[in-house]
Specification:
This protein is of the alpha+beta class and 77 residues long. It has a domain of 42 residues. The protein has 1 helix and 3 strands, in the order E-E-E-H. Strands 1-2-3 form a 3-stranded antiparallel beta sheet, with no helix packed on it. It is extended and about 45 Å long.
Length: 77
Amino acid sequence: MITEGEIWLVNSPFEENPNQFLPRPVIVLNVDLPQILSTKVTRHDPRATDRYDTPIQYWKKQISSIHQQQEYQRQFL
């Protein structure tokens, strides 16, 4: 089951060529089956030409925290 807030890997078409696809992570924003609203995650800076591009703030800090938790948990396995 797909839940809002989850991250999924999907084949996303290139904007320049919709016949080519690239696996990309997306964040699920809304689930109203059969439709699912999601937004792609990219490492690129927001584009000035796209008013919906939004930077993900503090992601490096969050990833670092997740890795630290995993290392801590491994010590007790």
